[in-house]
Amino acid sequence: MIKAMRTAASGMSGQQMNIDNIANNLANVNTTGFKKSKLEFQDVLYQNYRQAGTASAVGAVIPTNLAVGYGTKPVATTREFSVGDFMQTGNPMDMAISGNGFFQIQTPDGNAAYTRDGTFKISAEGQVVNSDGFMMLPEVTIPEDANSISVSIDGQISVMLTGTTEPQVIGTIELARFVNPAGLSAVGHNLYNQTGASGDPILGTPTQDGLGKIEQGYLEMSNVAIVDEMVNMIIAQRAYEINSKVIQTSDDMSQIANNLKR
After folding, report:
1. pLDDT 10s digits, 17-56
2. pLDDT tens digits for 135-167?
3. Which residues contact 180 (CB under 8 A, 6 or more apart)?
């Protein structure tokens, strides 16, 4: 009976983590560029009472195993990088990536981080920065006398300066992509860090080398589907409930065994 209790307890523990993950997805339903994640499970060790393929006492070959498992364990949270819906803002500093790729951001420690959040601002020095004041890479500086800013689908940034009639190109946005984006490490602030699993960033110009195009005046919203997450939450709740019932049943059976009399 103790084995059943501990097996069911592993199921309850796993579903608790599943609910925690679903809660994080729902909490970020309005987070710009957020990518939902799903929890993956594996079964654990098995106690084998009889091995398939071995000979029985009468010389016949046993066709199937006789084994009982010890429950489940969470093994991964896989992030899904499908493109979310676009929201038009009309702000020339808002940008969305239609397709693959990440904006590059320089963090305070001097390293590069990666994001799908295209909510950019202009700092007091004219640099293009994100909402936390972290600079976009490669660095782009907007002149003080710029009257308008235009970003083409291939990432070319142009400004119209006071007293001029032709736009002037001041820089180009460079995107990054990864062989395994699911291997990126989420560090908060809508940023990801590369890891050994993601591989090194592959840099390039938007619309080329498998990278998406830049949409100026739009923001990419979260790819969380509320209905899907609510269904997942109900399934996780029922699984948690069933495992708790197993513990209760095991306890009842143990009580029956303890009350046996000769």
Report:
1. 999 999 999 999 999 999 999 999 999 988 888 888 888 7
2. 999 999 999 988 899 999 999 999 998 888 889
3. 197, 198, 199
pLDDT of residue 164: 82
Two structure tokens written together for 45: 């060790």
Indicate the domain borders of the chain: 2-81+224-258, 86-220
Q: Please tell me the total number of residues recorded for the chain in this structure.
A: 262
Give the up-direction half-sphere exposure of residue 240: CA atoms within 13 A in the CB hemisphere.
Answer: 15
Report the C-alpha gap between 71 and 42 in whole angstroms: 9
pLDDT of 1 higher than 70: no
Residues 2-28 have pLDDT tens digits of 789 999 999 999 999 999 999 999 999
Pairing status of strand 168-172 against strand 156-161: antiparallel
What CA–CA distance (Å, rounded) separates 43 from 69?
Answer: 8
Residue with tokens 């006071």: 162
What token pair was written down for 120?
């950019």
